[in-house]
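Memo to structure team: turn this sequence into structure tokens by end of day. - J.P.
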Amino acid sequence: MTFASTSSGFSTAAEALKAHTWQLGPGQPTLVMDQFSAEDFHMVVDDRADVHVNSKDGRFYLGWFPLGRLGGDGEGWKIAVTGTTKMPGYSISFDAETPADIVAVAVTRVLETAHSR
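Reply from structure team:
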């Protein structure tokens, strides 16, 4: 049996409509934190047990807020890269329940794009 939607190009077999199991919960933050070396990054744990990681050049920041970032509306992770005079920077946020595996992949990719001068 095939179901077709009113939008063009979409149809699927009923067998493909099975339920999936999705990864949920924050997981292990060490998957993210273990990517940083003391040689290239500073790490600080504050009085709320929030973890802050900065690159030694000051252009990369990662914050992990296990209880949610103060004023961050459920924000659990914050990645920020400072821009230059010619190119703006960017930031990425994940809520506190985002699996650490997913945040780790994003951090890995950001670190892979860094080039030493």
